[in-house]
């Protein structure tokens, strides 16, 4: 299992557009991938659930990746954040 | 006149095309056996598959006239349609509550609409319309709602509707409408996004007054102010027709130049940045092709209130700007009150000569606790973007050293409290007092950048109060004395490898562009809307010509002669 931490810098948080790209990406992997913020954890296969979290700029999120291709998935997600969502 | 929220600027004049949709109704019928449950569930899944196919077909048929934005909207719609959470909610309603698929879907969508509408973020609230939209599409594929006939819209009409959903943009050919206006919606609703992406004037959230508009009424829509005039008289119509012409000329320039690099014909890159007052101004900066912020006036934060903003309030203000800056440089000027700018809670005594009195950095260095608070707030926000600090009204070297000492103090206090900040944040000064311009070589050793503030520099150099009608004709940035100071500051800045910018009105005067480039100025900061005009001047001239112009101007002793010459040199 791999856990990654990101701080979202986009003022509007994770919007529909990056959420769509993220969910499409996650679907390519066999691993179970979830997103944790505060006390809530959601499966990263639903754009709706990502939007329902109502993240904002400055929020910290954790991505939890568990499965046979977790290494590749973690790298792909890292690239996604670099290209689509400013973070620190 | 009706007023809403202007979301896509421009003037539209045209006949009203009014569309209102019918809502699907609940049937209340319950399922009485497990077989029916299974059937309803599979009906839902089939309708979803069909809906996704419809949208994917649209995506595959997209041609050049589609913006990336519109395709992204459709891709998000595909994800919403196939969303596992929505499927689970609908299936649960069917299996546990024995609702038929029509009712289950309507209820699930209604609950999601309520959820989004309850969110504090305006963008999220607008997603409620996306939920209604996918609900309608699936319902239609369940055979519950009749297929909406594609609307024939006469080109040039103004579309009036409750709201405009992603599906509407597909079923209606809105490419040729002159504008649109909706009853509901906010700045980030789908209607607003589409309007901006396609450059169609639009206003949203006009409320139910809009329902008084009849098919075929003549309308004027101002997409900047959000105002709508119904059946205007001849005179008003004339005024708006003229405004529409003006605007389209300006917009054409802006659109054509937005992604063009500001380079001279022989390849000298010039950086164009903007002067802003708050985070909300950032959108306009990027729309006009600005590459960052050369001057964030922090005064807005201090004005229109009863007491000094706290460190946290200031931090939030700067952080907002940093987050919106796309990591482009943002130069924050520390408080510049005094002179003609006053604060009610800041009891400044009346002065004989306020412009030569207690103002800007002089106040900051006198009331160090206020200065320290502001610097700490900026430092804390510095981790969220590329922020820089600029001190205004510097008139001698010691002031810079003193200001930097306070900055160091702020850093120490933050470090001791274990608060993150960017330790090597760039520090610069405004050059707006003649003594600072004359001492540019010495000042250069103290800072990372200069920004030339021409408004004050002109008035101090020429001893002219530009607000005084009797002498304002003497206020002239092309006066050779002023030009000498400017060119000396630029030269000394480069000599010491400093970054030199100009943020006064001269930077936005196309008559001066060539001359300033010839002086080796590489960065111009101005109001966002001026950027396309100055860029237009830059891309038409060569660096070599600019050098020649500067050499010629150096030999001129009179500003009328200089201006006359520059007019002949405008490409």
From TrEMBL, chain A:
It is found in: Cytoplasm. GO terms for cellular component: cytoplasm. Residues 1-88 form the HPr domain. PROSITE patterns: PTS_HPR_DOM, PTS_HPR_HIS, PTS_HPR_SER. InterPro entries: HPr, HPr-like, HPr-like_sf, PTS_HPr_His_P_site, PTS_HPr_Ser_P_site. It comes from the Bacteria. GO terms for biological process: phosphoenolpyruvate-dependent sugar phosphotransferase system. The keyword Cytoplasm applies. Keywords: Cytoplasm, Phosphotransferase system. Belongs to the HPr family. PANTHER family: PHOSPHOCARRIER PROTEIN HPR, PHOSPHOCARRIER PROTEIN NPR. This is HPr family phosphocarrier protein. It comes from Dyadobacter luticola. The lineage of its organism: Bacteria, Pseudomonadati, Bacteroidota, Cytophagia, Cytophagales.
């Amino acid at each position: 299992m791999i856990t990654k931490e990101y701080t979202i810098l986009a003022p509007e948080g994770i919007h529909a557009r990056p959420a769509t790209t993220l969910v499409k990406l996650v679907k390519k992997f066999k691993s179970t991938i979830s997103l944790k913020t505060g006390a809530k954890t959601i499966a990263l296969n639903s754009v709706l659930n990502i939007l329902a979290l109502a993240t904002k700029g400055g929020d910290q999120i954790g991505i939890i990746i568990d499965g046979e291709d977790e290494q590749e998935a973690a790298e792909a997600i890292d690239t996604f954040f670099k290209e689509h969502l400013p973070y620190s | 006149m009706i007023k809403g929220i202007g979301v896509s600027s421009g003037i539209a004049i045209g006949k009203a095309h009014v569309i209102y949709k019918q809502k699907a109704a609940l049937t209340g019928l319950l399922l009485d056996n497990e077989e029916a449950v299974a059937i309803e569930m599979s009906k839902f899944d089939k309708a979803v598959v069909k809906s996704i196919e419809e949208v994917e077909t649209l995506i595959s048929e997209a041609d050049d006239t589609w913006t990336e934005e519109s395709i992204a909207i459709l891709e998000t719609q595909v994800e919403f349609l196939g969303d596992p959470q929505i499927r689970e909610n609908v299936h649960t309603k069917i299996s546990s509550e024995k609702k038929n698929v029509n009712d289950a879907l309507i209820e699930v969508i209604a609950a999601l609409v309520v959820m989004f509408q309850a969110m504090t973020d305006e963008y999220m609230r607008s997603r409620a319309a996306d939920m209604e939209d996918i609900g309608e599409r699936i319902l239609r594929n369940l055979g519950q709602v009749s297929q909406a006939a594609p609307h024939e819209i006469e080109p040039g009409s103004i579309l009036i509707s409750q709201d405009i959903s992603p599906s509407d943009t597909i079923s209606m050919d809105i490419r040729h409408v002159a504008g649109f206006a909706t009853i509901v919606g906010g700045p980030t609703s789908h209607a607003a996004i589409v309007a901006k992406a396609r450059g169609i004037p639009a206003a949203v959230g006009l409320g139910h007054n809009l329902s008084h508009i009849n098919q075929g009424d003549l309308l004027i829509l101002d997409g900047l102010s959000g105002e709508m005039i119904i059946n205007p008289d001849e005179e008003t119509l004339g005024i708006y027709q003229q405004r529409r012409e003006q605007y389209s000329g300006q917009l054409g320039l802006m659109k054509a130049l937005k992604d063009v690099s500001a380079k001279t014909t022989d390849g000298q890159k010039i950086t164009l940045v903007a002067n802003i007052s708050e985070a909300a101004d950032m959108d306009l900066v990027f729309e006009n092709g600005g590459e960052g912020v050369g001057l964030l006036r922090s005064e807005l934060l201090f004005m229109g209130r009863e007491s000094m903003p706290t460190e946290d309030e200031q931090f939030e203000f700067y952080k907002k700007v940093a987050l919106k800056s796309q990591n482009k440089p943002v130069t924050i000027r520390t408080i510049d009150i005094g002179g003609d700018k006053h604060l009610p809670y800041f009891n400044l005594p009346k002065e004989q000569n306020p412009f030569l009195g207690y103002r800007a950095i002089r106040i900051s260095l006198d009331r160090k606790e206020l200065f320290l608070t502001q610097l700490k707030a900026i430092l804390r926000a510095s981790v969220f973007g590329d922020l820089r600090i600029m001190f205004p009204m510097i008139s001698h070297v010691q002031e810079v050293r003193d200001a930097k000492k306070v900055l160091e103090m702020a850093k120490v206090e933050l470090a001791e409290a274990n608060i993150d900040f960017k330790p090597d944040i760039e520090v610069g000064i405004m050059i707006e007092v003649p003594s600072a311009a004359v001492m540019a070589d010495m000042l250069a050793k103290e800072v990372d950048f200069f920004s030339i503030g021409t408004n004050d520099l002109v008035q101090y150099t020429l001893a002219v109060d530009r607000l005084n009608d009797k002498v304002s004709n003497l206020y002239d940035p092309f006066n050779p004395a002023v030009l000498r100071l400017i060119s000396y500051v630029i030269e000394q800045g480069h000599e010491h490898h400093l970054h030199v910018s100009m943020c006064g009105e001269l930077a936005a005067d196309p008559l001066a562009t060539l001359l300033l480039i010839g002086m080796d100025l590489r960065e111009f900061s101005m109001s966002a809307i001026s950027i396309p005009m100055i860029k237009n001047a830059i891309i038409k001239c060569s660096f070599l010509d600019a050098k020649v112009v500067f050499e010629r101007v150096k030999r001129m002793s009179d500003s009328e002669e200089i201006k006359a010459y520059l007019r002949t040199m405008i490409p």
